[in-house]
Design goal:
Length: about 80
């Protein structure tokens, strides 16, 4: 499923991710881990993150998977 389709299927999740990570956050994939958790991958501002949304506690946990760092040359 494409990122746009994932976003359409989970609008509240996308809103929550954007609240936590910034307005540029986008869903890449989402799957239901069990009856209480959604797991997935999101991208935002040069980062790729995995996330878990725990329904019972309404807690969103993220973990960076990859981060693009700006290279600055020293003169």
């Amino acid at each position: 499923m494409s990122a746009a389709q994932e976003s359409a299927r989970h609008p509240q999740l996308l809103d929550r991710l954007r609240h936590e990570l910034g307005p540029e956050a986008q869903l890449v994939s989402v799957r239901q881990a069990d009856s209480q958790r959604l797991r997935g991958v999101a991208v935002c501002a040069g980062r790729i993150l995995s996330f878990v949304l725990e329904a019972e506690q309404n807690r969103l946990r993220t973990q960076p998977l990859f981060e693009v760092l700006e290279h600055r040359r020293l003169r």
